[in-house]
Design brief:
The protein is an all-beta fold and 730 residues long. It has five domains: 101 residues, Immunoglobulin-like (Sandwich), CATH 2.60.40; 102 residues, Immunoglobulins (Immunoglobulin-like, Sandwich); 108 residues, Lipocalin; 125 residues, Beta Barrel (Lipocalin), CATH 2.40.128; 127 residues. It is 1% helix and 49% strand. It contains one helix and 51 strands. Strands 17, 18, 19, 20, 21, 22, 23, 24, 25 and 26 form a ten-stranded antiparallel beta sheet that branches. A nine-stranded antiparallel beta sheet has the order 38-37-36-35-43-42-41-40-39, with no helix packed on it. A hairpin with a 4-residue loop joins strand 28 and strand 29. The longest helix is centred in the N-terminal third of the chain and has 4 residues.
Length: 730
Amino acid sequence: MMKKCFFAVALLSLALAGGCAKGGNGVVPTVAVNGPSGVNTGLIYPTQPVVLTATTTDPANAAVTWSLSGPGSLMSQTSSSVTYVAPATAGGQPKVTATLTSDSSITGSLTLAVVDVTTQVSPATLSVGKNLTQQFTAIAVPDDAPQTFTWSCNVGGSGGPACNTFHQDPSVSGLAYYTYSAQDSCNGACVQISANSTLDPNGCLNSPKDCTIAKFSLVPYRLSGTYTFRFSGYDSSNNGTAVVGTFTVSNGNITGWEDLLTAGGPSAQNPIQIAGGSYTPASDPNNSNNAGAMTLPSGIYPNKFQVVLDGAGDVEMIESDGHGKGSGIAQKTASSNLFSGDQAFVFGFTGVDASGNRLGAAGVLPINGSGAISGGQMDVNDNSSTANICGSAPCNVAGSYTPDPNIIGLWQMTLTSGTTMKFDIFISGGTASKTNPLTFYAISTDPVDSTHPAVSGTMVLQDSSLTYNNAAFKGTSISALTGIVTAANATCTTPPCSNVALTLGTTDGNGNFSGQFDQNNAGAILSGAKFPPTGSTSYTYAASSTNGRYTFNMLGDPTQKTAVPPIPFVLYASGANRGFLLDQKSASVMTGTMSPQGKGGGGLSNSELPGTYAAATTSSGSSDVVPVAANLLATIQTTAGTGTLTYNISGTQYPPFVPPLQTVAGTYTVQAQGTGTIAPVSPATTPNYAIYVLDTNGCASQSFICSIQDFFMMDVDKTNPNASIMFAQQ
C-alpha cells in the first residue's frame, strides 16, 4: 500500500514535488502482504497457523518488519514472512501489517477473519431398516480445519439417552456407523447424530447453528409404499426393451402393474399385473441400509433387479435375472390430485423405429385439465431424419388424455401430429414446486410400424411463472447426453457403440453459451474441453418461441486448431436452465437432460463430497454397455502429524449376474466449478470417471458449508467403446 502524499494547493507545490518517498528510479516503492495459495484468509479457523509473505517493489525482496492489530499472535518472523496464529475463539478481523525496514512510511497489510468451525453430518434425513447398518460422514469447514470429530448419537434429540449401537470408525474420524436397534425406537425422525470438531468439543451444544445434525427413523422395511418406475435395456438377443409401471411394497411384499415394450411392439397383456414379489436387503457390509434385491413373479420381465436406495428412499436398479440387461429408477408416487387444471408438460422420449434405428423425440404438451391437449410442439430425430413421424420440425401436436378406470395413477394419452400415437403414462414423483416438478413416466402402446416407433421416457411439469425467452436462461447447468455410433471406426470396431457426454455450461441471458464438457465417443475421449474456442461465437442458444423451445449449440470439438463445429440441439424447457435435449442433426441421436447446477452459491471443494451415495447406470445407447449399480462412500481423512487431507471413495459395485459383490476403492477430486475425477485404487480395472456435480443442499452458516447431493459419473477410459453415464444420489 502506497502512503499518500498531500500537497498544498499553491505555488509551493513545485518546491515540494520531491516530498514523496521514491526509489532511485523515481518509482514509489510498494509492499503487499499475501496468504498462502489455496488458503482463504477470510475463513481462518481458531488456532489456525497461517504463513504470510511480503512482496516488495523497488527494490524487490526488500526487508520488512511485522506488526499485528486485533486478536491472535505473530510467530517465526523473518524479513519476508511471518506466521499468524489465530486466537482460540472466533471473532474479530485481525490486521497484519508489513513495514518497509528502509522507510517506515511504506506499508502493506492484510485483514483476516477468524470464524467458527462448522460441522455437517450426512445423510441428513433417512430411514434405517431393521437389522441394517447405515454409514454417516462428517465434514468440517473451513476446509483447512482438521477433519477430526467427536461423535454423539441420542434418542429423542439432544440430551436424550445414548444410542445402543453406534460407533466411530477407528481409522477415519469423519465416519461413523449406526445399526438398527429396537431399543432406540421413538416416534418419527427423532434419533439424531451430531459430530463436533475436536477444536470445539461442545460446538453443537453451545452453537447449534454451526452444526447440521442427521435425524433418522427406524423402520421395519426400508422399501415401503407406492412407487412408479421406468426401466430400459436389451433382451438376451440384444433387442431393445422398456418397462414402465407402478408397484406397492407392504411388509416386504410387492404388487402392482407394468407395461412392457419391445422392439416388436407392446405386450398384448399390457397392463400386466404384478401379483407378487419381494424386496430383500443385501448382505453388504458397505452401506447395507442402501442396497438390496427386488424379485418379481417369473412371468414378469425383467423379474430380478439389484437395487440401491438413496437417503430419500428413491430406487436405482439394474437387471439381474440373466434374461437381458438394463437399468431404471423408481420414485415414490405423487398424489394424482397434482395433475389438474391448465398445465404444460415437456417430454423426452427415446427408442427405436420399425427398422431398429435409434429415435429420439422432445416436445411440450399443454393440457386444459379436462382431458384435452392443444397447442403442443414436438421435434424428432429418427436416425438423423425428421420425416417419419411429423415432418418438418417443430411439428404441431394436439391430443387427449383420460384416467384409467381401474389403475390409480395410470392415464391413457393420445397425440396427433401427422400420425396418431398412443401412450400409457404413470404419475411418478414430484410436487407442484418448480424445484421438484411433477413427473410422469410414459411408454408407447401402438404396434410398431413405419409411423409408430417404440419409445418411452419422461414428462415433467413446466414452470408456468417464466417467460421463455433468452433472459430466462441465465445461470449454470449440467447436461447429460447419451447416443450411439453406428459406423465402424478405429475405436468402435463392432458397432453400435455408445456416445456419451457431460457438459457444464453457463448461459448469460443474451444468447451466449460457454463452459466445458467431457465426452467418450466410442472410446475417443475429449476431456475438459473448453468452449467456445478463443475468438469464436459458435456456441449460442436462442428461444425459438415462448412455449419453452430453445436451440442450443453443443459438443463438437473446440480443442482442434481448426475447431469441429458444435452440433445443433433442441431443448424443451421445464424451467430455467432445465429441460430435455435432442440432437437435431446426427445419426448418433443424442438425447438427455439439462438441469440447473446447485442450490447454494460459491465455489465447490473436495470437502463437500463426503457422504453415502446410491449410483447406477442411466439409459444405455448400446446393448454392449454393462449396467452397474453401486454403493459409494466418500470420506476425508487427515494424516496424523502432517495435517494433509486425502479424499477417498469406496464401496461396493454390483456387476450384473455375477456374485459375489465387488469391493471398489479410489480417490476423488472436485474443482471449484463442480467438475472432478474419480481414479481407481482397486481393482485396477475399475474405470476412471469424470464427475459433474449437479446439486447441493444449499449453504449454511457464515462458513458457507455445503454438501453435494447428486452428481453424474462418466467412464473416460479410451479402452471402453461402450461407456455409460451413472447418476449418484445421496
